[in-house]
Design brief:
244 residues, OB fold (Dihydrolipoamide Acetyltransferase, E2P), 5-stranded parallel sheet, 7 helices, elongated, DNA binding, phosphoprotein
């Protein structure tokens, strides 16, 4: 039997929240709860890890929906669908920066809700297939990663990582304190760490750009290690270096 998709509703209008809850239950989803404040949403999401969060942007209280999303994503990568009656560009830009899966504008109808959630569920299933290998061996948080090493998950601070080298279907994570080989391809590692200061510079290498000692025409150096720099990645790297 297929497990139900679990959804947390964060909406401070209880009439709207209750209506959404009934609709989702009728569609076969599991409603994990209703929260009306950003603070409670953060606690609920980090403790219970729902599959999707329906999150109102304009929550009353000290923490709005965007701020709640930012805090949740420091600990859990949970797909977010924003509910909003506010369409101004500044709010949209702030919300977009949290990388939501979708927006639903208020007022919305049942069909709009149904179709949006169905599309996000399909995205989650596709991503699960693509990142299954990663999830078992690599967990990326805001300032650290956990890698499976010698049968246990080991914490590595992102600032300790110098570069990551591909080794067929494995990745060798090189730190200032040692190396960690994980059974995850470099492409999947790249997808997981794209929001951090790591860039692909060659088909076989990703580097921590804060650790670069030398940038030459066709190679880089980190801690005396010479790393090849491909032409196809060079422009992207230089753009990032100019912004830091």
């Amino acid at each position: 039997m297929e497990q139900k998709t679990r959804i947390l509703i964060v909406e401070d209008d209880m009439i709207i929240a209750a209506n959404i809850s009934v609709q989702l239950s009728n569609l076969g989803y599991e409603v994990m709860g209703i929260e009306t404040r950003g603070e409670e949403a953060i606690l609920h999401a980090t403790a219970n890890c729902p599959d999707i969060i329906l999150l109102d942007i304009n929550l009353r209280g000290n923490v709005n929906g965007i701020e709640a999303a930012e805090q949740i994503q420091k600990f859990k990568r949970i797909p977010i669908i924003y509910l909003t009656a506010n369409s101004d560009e500044a709010t949209f830009a702030k919300a977009k920066a949290t990388r939501p899966h979708a927006f639903i504008s208020k007022p919305f109808n049942s069909l709009n809700l149904q179709r949006t959630i169905a599309l996000v569920v399909d995205q989650i299933k596709d991503n699960d297939m693509d990142t299954l290998e990663v999830s078992d061996n690599l967990e990326v948080l805001s300032d650290r990663i956990f890698v499976r090493h010698n049968g246990k998950m080991v914490k590595l601070l992102l600032d300790e990582i110098l570069y990551i080298e591909a080794d067929r279907n494995y990745s060798n994570i090189v730190t200032s304190n040692g190396n960690y080989l994980v059974s995850t391809t470099l492409k999947l590692v790249q997808n997981e760490m794209k929001n951090h200061s790591f860039l692909r510079v060659h088909r076989s290498y990703m580097v921590n750009i804060s650790k670069l000692d030398v940038v030459a025409d066709n190679h880089l150096e980190i801690n005396r290690k010479v790393i090849p720099l491909s032409k196809s990645f060079k422009e992207h790297l230089l753009k990032h270096l100019h912004t830091i």
